[in-house]
TrEMBL record, chains A, B, C, D:
It comes from Aureimonas jatrophae. InterPro entries: D-iso_2-hydroxyacid_DH_PdxB, D-isomer_2_OHA_DH_cat_dom, D-isomer_DH_NAD-bd, NAD(P)-bd_dom_sf. Keywords: NAD, Oxidoreductase. Belongs to the D-isomer specific 2-hydroxyacid dehydrogenase family. One of its GO terms (molecular function) is oxidoreductase activity, acting on the CH-OH group of donors, NAD or NADP as acceptor. Residues 20-317 form the D-isomer specific 2-hydroxyacid dehydrogenase catalytic domain. Residues 115-290 form the D-isomer specific 2-hydroxyacid dehydrogenase NAD-binding domain. The lineage of its organism: Bacteria, Pseudomonadati, Pseudomonadota, Alphaproteobacteria, Hyphomicrobiales. This is Phosphoglycerate dehydrogenase.
Amino acid sequence: MTRRIILVDPLPRTLDLIMTPDVRRRLERMGEVVVSEDRTMPDEVVERLLPETVLIFGQTAMDRARLECAPHLKAIINVETNFLPNVDYQAAQDRGVHVITPASAFAAPVAEAALGMAIDLARGITKADRLFRDGRESYGLAANRETFRFMGSSVGLIGFGDLGRQFRELICPFRNTVRIFDPWLPAEVIERAEAIPASLDEVLSESRTVAVFAGVTSENQNFIGAREFALMQPGSSFLLMSRAGVVDFPAFLDAVRSGHIRAATDVFPEEPVAADDPVRQIPGLLLSAHRTGGTSDAFHAIGAMAVADAELILRGLPPVLCRRADPATAARLRSKPVDLS
Amino acid sequence: MTRRIILVDPLPRTLDLIMTPDVRRRLERMGEVVVSEDRTMPDEVVERLLPETVLIFGQTAMDRARLECAPHLKAIINVETNFLPNVDYQAAQDRGVHVITPASAFAAPVAEAALGMAIDLARGITKADRLFRDGRESYGLAANRETFRFMGSSVGLIGFGDLGRQFRELICPFRNTVRIFDPWLPAEVIERAEAIPASLDEVLSESRTVAVFAGVTSENQNFIGAREFALMQPGSSFLLMSRAGVVDFPAFLDAVRSGHIRAATDVFPEEPVAADDPVRQIPGLLLSAHRTGGTSDAFHAIGAMAVADAELILRGLPPVLCRRADPATAARLRSKPVDLS
Amino acid sequence: MTRRIILVDPLPRTLDLIMTPDVRRRLERMGEVVVSEDRTMPDEVVERLLPETVLIFGQTAMDRARLECAPHLKAIINVETNFLPNVDYQAAQDRGVHVITPASAFAAPVAEAALGMAIDLARGITKADRLFRDGRESYGLAANRETFRFMGSSVGLIGFGDLGRQFRELICPFRNTVRIFDPWLPAEVIERAEAIPASLDEVLSESRTVAVFAGVTSENQNFIGAREFALMQPGSSFLLMSRAGVVDFPAFLDAVRSGHIRAATDVFPEEPVAADDPVRQIPGLLLSAHRTGGTSDAFHAIGAMAVADAELILRGLPPVLCRRADPATAARLRSKPVDLS
Amino acid sequence: MTRRIILVDPLPRTLDLIMTPDVRRRLERMGEVVVSEDRTMPDEVVERLLPETVLIFGQTAMDRARLECAPHLKAIINVETNFLPNVDYQAAQDRGVHVITPASAFAAPVAEAALGMAIDLARGITKADRLFRDGRESYGLAANRETFRFMGSSVGLIGFGDLGRQFRELICPFRNTVRIFDPWLPAEVIERAEAIPASLDEVLSESRTVAVFAGVTSENQNFIGAREFALMQPGSSFLLMSRAGVVDFPAFLDAVRSGHIRAATDVFPEEPVAADDPVRQIPGLLLSAHRTGGTSDAFHAIGAMAVADAELILRGLPPVLCRRADPATAARLRSKPVDLS
């Protein structure tokens, strides 16, 4: 091999979106960068480059046959941040090719917004602003009849991946009792985070604020439905931060519309939401248009994590920032591609 | 003395507002409780009781003459939480009568709301909800063109009393660079809180979020005006959490209306705000009707702190939860009584 | 008054011991400094200077008569850090003269050493070093038969002043269950520090490590004796960090010598300890010659806190770093002067 | 397969050493447990069981041929906590067999002891005890001439794996400036831990306390030698907590003996140390006989982490507590087996 190709095929991202000039220079120091960002890299270009390719950044289709054409390939780095069925994960593992993605890039901005929303729901911030603009505000104690203090209240998390962990860290000064439901984790991991491992029903019935951070899998679609919302305490808060698919959305809206709970959601079954969707008129619902993760620093984190791990891999070291695709579990993930840009 | 009177004269508070049943029982264990809460305790009642009074909870007028009629009086505990000119502070000190108030009772709920509002302004939460309801929402990156991450951003505090300290503690996980202006404090106190002592101008010009927690004194009225707002970075946030009197309010509204800064305010020069006040229509202003402190737990904290310190005083120990009136500085404080209930 | 005298009479301290050049320059900016540090300032000098004195740094005798000769005096700042009977505290208060001392100056170095000693006792660090030097060391698990993990173990504090608070902060990452006995404090203060208010007996019987941070008063001398040591769990640790007088010292040594508990002490009934004192041979006792507080940075903190508060006082503001003498409680304190230098 | 064998071959551990009764019951619920702990499991037994084995706990030799005889094997869980050449890691990965080890089990007790030792060296705790027993103690400031405050001082870490991270967390309240050298990690990981990525030379020359937490690899043996010790500041502390092989041991002892640095070590080139080894007489060296990790709770953590991850693996989920063997990097690790029991 005389060349060291770095194949960059980042759609729906672009290189400028995910890399600051500084990170891009680090990328260029690792090899000869070939980019296709106005369209998916054409098959003939991919196939011509593979024999000399050491790294792929992007969602290029990589079946077993293509992997076999890429004897120097060290890593495929998905910059979409969801593992898709575009790679033969088992074949990649068999050949010692790392398949990784900077899955945690969006965790920090989403967790920050989730705390803002949790306080907002508890203390009625957005609602009070709306009433004030309508000339219907109350003052002092009268304005707090339906509020609760977030400090010291009980919090329940559904899903304790990167997002849940960031959120748990941000709420530390609030001294909440925190219960966590995550069937993919042993109790030890939850206890180390000074939280209580709990069943889904316990999380729902014991928490004044419930935040959903779980991804969608083939097994958990709509797993929070009418029965589950009924378990929640009247007046408690529900934050839907990860994927709309984990809840039965009509049942969710019913629970908010009836006044049983208050809620915030950053995700919707169909995005963009239809202009006449009645979701836009529910008073107890804080609306966020899939916007809590898509900050420019989060996109830059994708590139920074991807490049840092690529540098390690080229030195023969294991990646430490990105998540590895596990052939067994990748199959369970069903995230449909979501374009945050 | 055969009786031990505890004189309770709590208006504008009531005993039920400020004491849970549990705390009230502790109050009653200290002596014979005489309460007047439908009106200020009449002079003749006060004067009849003073010779056997050990504690006063409330804002009863206590000039030197009355103090001389109360030989067993150990403490006057203001439950308004602002020192007013109702007491001859020097005479009380001369007689060894503690004059104290649970000044920090509202700090925790205000600090919590301030963090919610700081994240709200940075990430555009309330504004995005309003746009969504109007059918004008954007998604993902497009919805974040004017946002900034609160995490890691620069924060400036004006005033570092109980409120500022609570806020500083709550933002610890956000790893902000924090600058503090408080002319009543030595640099050591600010540095111990892992913050940078700074001038007012530095706080304003270097911070992406500025939060005002200072009380009003005879010296600092309107000390943040047009010149000061002009020092702020375009697009930065301003939170007014303590007293409207510390800012030049028209200059403040101009700075927001022009789009130079975004802001939240919990206080207004006149409360309630007039129905047709144009403040209600400023898009970049998050409106809160003097409601961030007035939660029921904050009122209960008044009673709990007052009773706990009274118990210590009756045992001959110094109070530790309430603030002591300092004759010299009490004169500087000009807070007009604000009724949060 | 044409001069503004600052009278400095710091024995047993010296000005160089307690002030860095920087702090000394701040002192000199406040007035005309007159120092006597080879001997206590002679009466005739004191009396000549008092009419023009604004600040006293030191332990100068200040009875009512002298106070009356000092019409411009704003503060007496004890740099010994213990209030002594040299001042008429009531008369000073009556005249509005602040009497303060930087009592917390030694808290930080003592707390740091206390944590080192707590881990040392739990894990057997000094003892293992001694065995190793004697050629009697064990390795691995065999060397840990009598150790316990400090992480997660129960800790009890006796006294929760500056020292106890610093210690509580340092152990936060260790996630101990912390019980605190402090009869001068309401439960609220202890609960805010995420600890459990407890009786002395509970602290002793429930804690794997007990640390004594209480000062001596006229009421608590020798309050931890044979009965109290018997309450402790076998193999638990006892740290004596404040004053020897709070324990019945012979009973303490018996409890250690018998092997019932392990212990560390920084204080002794007589200092220096006699050359032939059998305390030097007790294997389970970690010995420290009243040295945990006396670091040079602690002495410098005395001067820095004293000068910072003096600056505030001269501006008409209340001091915030030093402790105020309370005429009522000053009488209870019985600390005999201890010279740490 | 009619049986589900769990093959337990834990030497040099025993099952009782690494599992509490509770954890053992969880082990037994996963299958039929076959244990050999008086000797390594004989070949004929292993080979007879493999066809029905689902899990191996221990260091059983597993070459490619044996792996092929174990069609139901899901995981090999090394309970030695060091990956050894007993497994064909590539063959295991190819067959989807997890090879993992609870590598972090010893991190918590070692980090705790390291903090105790860091404070000990800074403040002279063990040394002061020795002087006191010899009748040569000093008091107060005189006893602190060679001490430094650990609080606020500069700290350098060499190696930032589990151990370094635990240590970094424990020292948070001490507000040190922390520099970290770890060539296996990108700067991002170090910066997230609020530390400064630094070269080895910077860590050595800028830190008042240097702690070595790095494991030995084929590349880093003796990488800290005379040149490196000379870079350290006079009077600074050096803690050797991981493997003796990372330092040039004679050069290390010279640096301590000469008085240039003070040090603590938990590891030695030959263990047990010879009775007449002069290392036993070096005054500035705190001696620990490879005992900081070997606490009973650490051994129990091995079993608890191993069983928790085995439970996940049997449910088709990825392990989350143990470290995975990476065929590429396993080859670099050269830890010779160390028996902590």
